[in-house]
Amino acid sequence: MSKVIFIDVDGTLVTYENVLPKSAVEAIRTARKNGHKVYICTGRSRAEVYEEIWDIGLDGMIGGNGSYVESDGKVIMHQVISLEDAKHIVDWLHGRKLEFYLESNAGLFASENFETRGQSTIQGYSARKGRNMKTVRECFPEMIFGEKNLYRDDLNKVSFILESYQDYLDAVKEFPNLKVGTWGGAGETALFGDVGVENITKAHAIDVLLKYLGADKKDTIAFGDAKVDIPMLEYCEIGVAVASGGDEIKAMADMVTDAVEDDGIYNAFKKLNLI
Q: Is the overall model pTM greater than 0.90, yes or no?
């Protein structure tokens, strides 16, 4: 019976040093040859999914933590922040002197001083993830700087640097009609806040895709490493956490495979008879 497989990217498919194991590429290509469908399911917007990942050979992607669904090159769903809300977010962040970047499928657009203010935060984030990123441009190689018009109608999310945890709490109050969260590294450390479309999850996006494909939930398998991946592991028939992931997702998963760098994807595909 063919399966529909969903794989988170950062910390699951690739290491936090952005290394894509050859064994994972082999596993995905072999599984697809065996008739299974493979999608990435990530917080990244499409502009952040670089050619190295597409070159593996995929059936499509879920992006923006569930705001975007693509299959065989066709956009199935794309929920974006309204232009009115986008203006509100940008104005509020400017008013609080918080640096940010806009996440859209057309690219990542940095605020005026994000590159300089973001350097120390990016270094802290990368250190918590076992990386050694020294600059914003190293972390986000295709980020667009110097954009004059930051009011956009195609945004999946907006991420902003937290000067304090109170910035996140205040954002929750300021944007009750949007989904506000935090991210930043080990132990759920809050270095960034983010604002996105309300009521989106990776699980909801998977449900939309399965209906489009005419596929059954009992034939689904999900792979992840972080708290944001828990809804998709709960939704899918089999949920697999990588050993390098957080304790919370490992505790709820049906299976824990090896760390990314220890051929976790390949080994799980073998155990699940996908290859």
A: no
Contact residues for 77 (Cβ-Cβ < 8 A; gap 6+):
68, 69, 205, 208, 209
What is Dmax (Cα atoms) for the chain?
55
Among 91, 87, 97, 63, residue whose Cα is nearest residue 77: 63
Q: Using a CB cutoff of 8 Å and minimum separation of 24, what contacts does 108-111 make?
A: 108/45, 108/47, 108/48, 108/140, 108/142, 108/143, 108/144, 109/143, 109/144, 109/147, 109/150, 109/152, 110/136, 110/143, 110/144, 110/145, 110/147, 111/150
Alpha-carbon gap, residue 220 to 217, rounded angstroms: 5
Write the pLDDT tens digit of every residue in 8-63: 998 899 987 778 999 999 999 999 999 999 999 998 999 989 899 999 999 999 99
